[in-house]
Write a structure and sequence with these properties.
By secondary structure, the chain is α+β, with helices and mostly antiparallel strands. The chain has 6 helices and 7 strands. Strands 2-3-4-5-6 form a 5-stranded mixed beta sheet, covered by helices on one side. Strands 1-7 form a two-stranded antiparallel sheet.
Length: 193
């Protein structure tokens, strides 16, 4: 996760984090949203709000969790028209200082190319104490929530159909469709019974 240089940067000094933690609200102004949209290649980010609970994790780590809601305007990949969508996702992340033993274990696992279970929790990310950029973490979760190929609801009627695969386009028209043959056999079987 890239945690520096975000237009919605919101650094938090984790050394002063209370035992109960605290909630940080990331709600950027119009200028920051415009810079965020430009960096992410979007037409606009019209609204973004995240309520991130920041608590201590293990001895020196930090846990972030909370809801993220944003309104973005992208370009439809079929019609090239502006397409507005509302994104809702949950922020869940663990961070440890780059000097932590947990950070070294993660780097060791990656260098040994150990297979990671996709169902297990993600390994903690690292940060350089004492500050953790909460806004940059929100930025990353927003990037993950965005549809990379947005389509307008009516795009199917005017664009290329999803079923138009290269095989379907180059198929021999005189060769029978195997699914049509199976359907015919199924119908004949039903008539016999």
């Amino acid at each position: 996760m890239r945690l520096e240089g975000s237009p919605i940067s919101h650094p938090l000094n984790v050394s002063t984090l209370p035992t109960k933690g605290r909630t940080i609200v990331v709600h950027p102004d119009e200028g920051a949203l415009a810079a965020l949209a430009e960096e992410m290649g979007l037409l606009a980010v019209s609204d973004l709000r995240a309520e991130v609970s920041v608590t201590r994790w293990q001895r020196d780590g930090v846990r972030l969790f909370g809801p993220l809601r944003a309104k973005v305007i992208q370009t439809c990949v079929v019609t090239l028209e502006p397409l507005e969508s509302t994104l809702e996702t949950q922020i869940e992340a663990l961070f440890v200082p780059d000097t932590s033993k947990l950070a070294r274990k993660t780097a060791e696992y990656e260098s040994n190319a150990i297979l990671i279970d996709p169902e297990s929790d993600d390994a903690p990310e690292t940060f350089s104490p004492p500050e953790l950029d909460i806004g940059a973490a929100v930025h990353e979760f927003l990037a993950l929530a965005i549809d990379p190929y947005p389509r307008a609801p009516d795009a199917e009627s005017i664009g290329v159909q999803p079923s138009s695969t290269p095989d379907a386009l180059t198929a021999d028209p005189e060769r029978p469709n195997p699914f049509a043959v199976l359907a015919k056999l199924k119908d004949e079987g039903a008539k016999d019974t």
